[in-house]
Amino acid sequence: MKQFQGRVITPGEVTAPAVVTTEGFNTLASLQMALQFGDKEAKCGDQNNKELHGKPLCGRALCLPQTIGSTTGGLVLYCACAMGRNPACMLFANPIDSLAAAGAVLADVWVDGVAMPVVDSLGEEFLQYVKDGMTVTVKENGVVEVE
Predict the structure, then answer these.
(1) Structure pTM?
(2) Of 22, 48, 64, 136, which is most buried by a Cβ count within 10 Å?
(3) Whole-angstrom Cα distance, residue 27 to residue 76?
(4) Helix axes 73-82, 27-37, angle to 10 degrees
(5) pLDDT digit string (tens) for 20-30?
């Protein structure tokens, strides 16, 4: 097991299997199918992200460097949480961008019964270490354990 310390964006504790990308995560392209067409597993629809395309995101620890793409990214994250089709947590190697942060914070404040802990600034070593299917535990203080 290895521990990484990051910065808490939205608090919470969760344990979930990892799904990992070393590419930027296009929030709209990745989650649009789940939001529009009822895919309850929220399989990644971004054909440009070969590491995630077709993999379920719902209930997974989404490990990524940063988000990219549409200015609707924050709204997409908020809607995914409101519909219960969100990742269990989002773990950023780099500092989070303002759009993703806005969506995560809005969901944390406005969506009852849904927690999606978000931690950023975990570092490049985090993305080099974590692999798909590894068990990831997020602590309230921003510690992320990977085993």
Answers:
(1) 0.97
(2) 64
(3) 7
(4) 40
(5) 999 999 999 99
